[in-house]
Amino acid sequence: MKRIIFAALIVSYFSVNAQQNSDVAFSKSYSFEYETQYSKAITALTDLHQDSYQINLRLGWLYYLSKDYTKSELYYRKAVALEPSSIEARFGLVLPMSTAGNWNNVLTAYLEIVKLDPNNSIANYRIASIYYARKDYANATTYVSRVLKLYPFDYDSNLLYGKILMAQAKNAEAKKHIGKALEYNPQSEEAKTALKKL
After folding, report:
1. The CATH number of the domain where 140 resides is what?
2. What does the alpha-carbon distance between residue 133 and residue 131 come to, in Å, rounded to a whole number?
3. Using one digit for the tens of pLDDT, what is the confidence trace for 75-90?
4. Residues 31 and 92 both lie in one domain
5. Which of 71, 79, 111, 165 could disulfide-pair with 57, CB 3.0 to 4.6 Å?
6. Is the domain of 102 the same as that of 166?
7. What whole-number distance in Å separates Cα of residue 72 and Cα of residue 91?
8. Same domain? 137 vs 189
9. CB atoms within 10 A of CB 137
10. Do residue 132 and residue 169 come from a single domain?
11. Interval 21-78: pLDDT, tens
12. Three-state secondary structure of the chain
């Protein structure tokens, strides 16, 4: 019985000690990040257990800030593998991929987010933007409509939908949505310019 109690105390000690080490490492890492010393911020975490979701997520961010997009993507992918339903890790993953111009992978990441969270307005809007840039107006409409269903007065989505409609020569509908964007932001030069084209 004494051996069991002793073993439990040892496990408890190491668990508490590991948590304290983790807390100190994260604290140092944030301090170094604040000072823009990203390599030191990374080093503060590298001695910790690498199978931790939060460490991989943080390393993804720090490598992104360091402009090492390959390592950033690697750590964000590790975070996704550790927590497959994580939306925050997938949004993180988009950062290095978009900076590197890997738009097919960016689109895939956003599509995975909307599989997990169909009403995620950020992912739906960005998917619509990518499809609009590719002149795939049918898909662009599908995804921007999801945002407008939940946020009918959203400036960005109304402006984007107006542009999608303009590209299809649906000017009456386009005018309605660009008008809403202009109501939301009367100073928007982009919306004013789009409206003049109709």
Report:
1. 1.25.40.10
2. 5
3. 999 999 999 999 999 9
4. yes
5. 79
6. no
7. 12
8. yes
9. 17
10. yes
11. 677 888 888 998 999 999 999 999 987 767 899 999 999 999 999 999 999 999 999 9
12. CHHHHHHHHHHHHHHHHHHHHHHHHHHHHHHHHHCCCHHHHHHHHHCCCCCCHHHHHHHHHHHHHCCCHHHHHHHHHHHHHHCCCCHHHHHHHHHHHHHCCCHHHHHHHHHHHHHHCCCCHHHHHHHHHHHHHCCCHHHHHHHHHHHHHHCCCCHHHHHHHHHHHHHCCCHHHHHHHHHHHHHHCCCCHHHHHHHHCC
| Cβ–Cβ under 8 Å, residues 42 and 50 | no
Instruction: Looking at the structure, tell me whether residues 111 and 186 fall in a common domain.
Output: no
Give Cα 137 distance to the centre of its chain.
23
Q: How many domains does the chain have?
A: 2
Instruction: State how far the alpha carbon of 133 is from the alpha carbons of 96, 115, 125, in Å.
Output: 20, 22, 12
Q: What's the start-to-end Cα distance of the chain, in Å?
A: 84
Domain of 60 in residue numbering reads as 26-117
Last residue of a domain, which of 57, 92, 117? 117
Residue with tokens 């004494």: 2
Rounded distance between C-alpha atoms, residue 179 and residue 169, angstroms? 16
Do 83 and 133 lie in one domain? The reply is no
Instruction: Estimate the crossing angle of helix 155-167 against helix 171-184, to 10 degrees.
Output: 160
